[in-house]
């Protein structure tokens, strides 16, 4: 039985262990073996921690996407106000003037480039400054809808940020910190032990061992294919 390549990605290792655990939990005979049971229990604990860490990392990525979304909504609304600044109807330009001034003020304050917390504070302040001009906004077609989208994007960001902060509590380790101990259990103990079970045609563990062997081969093939992909060279 081959060992898993050390260059396996965290998500690939997480998926491999999840498959191995499902196979083990469905194999009553393999569960009779005390050594395999102890190692699978260790893997299960590490897998849970790695999975949580991976989800945490995805949560940060999602925050980045939501932050970009609110930036885009702010700029879209600002462009509408900028367009009204050169609108041929003077009444529309007059209604838009104080709103454009606010957009310019917050754009210059770096709203779209501020850190997450600062941007939320700036959007909340911008929303408050707009309150005296709700009638103006309503009279400028398209602007209210654009502002509604901005504030909805901010609400979505805040909700995700709260959930992400909650997920971080007590979970400071990265997914990579679990990779080495997981590979050690798999490659240095389970692979060696299960290989012997296949050779001896052990009544309890040989079937599970063959499943693990097949999954290792499949996972290594994926890693080989990924590693063989040509890397894009930077254009000069």
Descriptive terms for the model:
mainly alpha; 8 helices; disordered C terminus
Topology:
Elements lengths: L9 H16 L8 H52 L4 H19 L7 H15 L3 H6 L3 H26 L10 H21 L6 H23 L8
Helix pairs in contact: 1-2, 1-8, 2-3, 2-6, 2-7, 3-4, 7-8
Description:
Residues 231-236 have low confidence and may be disordered. This protein has helices spanning 10-25, 34-85, 90-108, 116-130, 134-139, 143-168, 179-199, 206-228. With 236 residues, the protein is mainly alpha-helical. The two termini are 46 Å apart. The longest helix is centred in the first third of the chain and has 52 residues, at 34-85. It is built from eight helices and no strands. 75% of the residues lie in helices and 0% in strands. Helix 3 packs antiparallel against helix 4 and helix 7 crosses helix 8.
Q: Span between N and C termini?
A: 46 Å
Pick out the low-confidence regions.
231-236
* Principal-axes shape call: rod-shaped
| Alpha-carbon Rg, integer | 28 Å
Secondary-structure content class? mainly alpha
Mean pLDDT: 89
H/E series: HHHHHHHH
Largest sheet: none
In percent, how much strand structure appears in the residues? Answer: under 5%
Helix content: over 70%
Could you tell me the number of beta strands?
Answer: 0
The total count of helices amounts to 8
